[in-house]
Amino acid sequence: MCTELDKMKGNMIGFFQTVTPNLQESIEFFQRLEFKQDVNHPQVFYEGGQIIFINFERIARAGLRFYADSWTKVVSEIEKLCKVHQIESGYAFADPSNSWVYLLESEAPTLTPPAMPSKSILGNFAGLSLESGNIELSIAIYKILGFKIVMGSIEQGWISLENDQKMGIGLMVPNNCPHLFFNPSFSYFNGGKNDEIIPLIQEKEIAITEEITVFNADNKVDNIILRDPGGFGFFIFND
User: Fold this and answer.
1) CA–CA separation, 36 vs 81, rounded Å?
2) How far apart are CA 29 and CA 67, in angstroms?
3) Are the C-beta atoms of residues 40 and 112 closer than 8 Å to each other?
4) Which stretches of the chain are DSSP H helices?
5) Does the pLDDT of residue 157 top 60, yes or no?
6) Do residues 118 and 47 make contact, with C-beta atoms less than 8 angstroms apart?
7) 223 CB contacts (<8 Å, ≥6 apart)?
8) CB within 8 A of 131, min separation 6: which ones?
9) Omega prior to 184 cis, within 30 of 0
10) How many CB atoms lie within 10 A of CB 94?
11) Confidence of residue 2 (pLDDT cuts 50, 70, 90)
12) Which residues of 139-177 are buried (b: 16+ CB within 10 A; e: fewer)?
């Protein structure tokens, strides 16, 4: 049976949120990587059908933002698991990865998505990655927000979740990733094509935060990590 809570979660609209000390620098960062910019909202970009919101408010933190008419029922469930803060436009809480989730009681911005599917030069967008200090608690929280497990297992060290909007979240257990990990980060899995993608990134003069060689026997840089002006991570992985 579809409950009132289920209906509300199905109607919510979600954005990935990065933050910035300089809006123009962040806009230029995403433009250089060929993300598609919304025609009416310069701080909104599209990637792989998902929506990225650049928040330049000084108190904003990176994570996720969701819009709905009311979050009362959801908040009552989440408060059983973690501290929820009331803010001017709704609610906010930090998940076990210390990434923030904003539940906003207002209309989402009216957006004009690009006519063609959006894709940056970074390759195949796999969603948001979070390294969680308590993956069981993270799963429980995101299930309340309407996410379902679609791949992986705790025994494997990772879980992939998705909601009705096709927002993807990957949760990793601690000590599972032999490289720098920034919470939150976007992940891209490129099926062996990073030899073509990494030079494109270098041509755009985007600083590489880490060159990763640990996944091959030849000490070759086949995976890299980037960060936007606000510190949001980008994992550009070969597989």
Assistant:
1) 37
2) 26
3) yes
4) 4-11, 23-32, 72-78, 135-144, 194-203
5) yes
6) yes
7) 179, 194, 212, 215, 235, 236, 237, 238
8) 97, 171, 172, 173, 174, 176, 177, 181, 183
9) yes
10) 15
11) very low
12) bbbbebbbbeeeeeeeeeebbbbbbebebbbbbbbeeeb
Residue identified by tokens 């908040």 is 75
The pLDDT of residue 117 is 82
CATH architecture of 4-104: Roll (3.10)
- What residue ranges do the domains of the chain occupy? 4-104, 125-237
pLDDT digits (tens, 9 = 90+) for 82-101: 999 999 999 999 999 999 99
| Confidence bin at 63 (pLDDT 50/70/90) | very high
> What is the distance between the alpha carbons of residues 173 and 135, in angstroms, rounded to a whole number?
6
Residue 182 structure tokens: 């920034």
Order of strands, sheet of 13-19, starting from the edge strand that comes earlier in the sequence = 36-37, 44-47, 50-55, 13-19, 63-67, 100-104, 90-94, 85-87
For the whole model, what pTM was predicted?
0.93
DSSP code at position 190? -
Same topology between domain 4-104 and domain 125-237? yes
SS3 call for 49: coil
Mean pLDDT for 55-83 is 97
CATH architecture of 125-237: Roll (3.10)
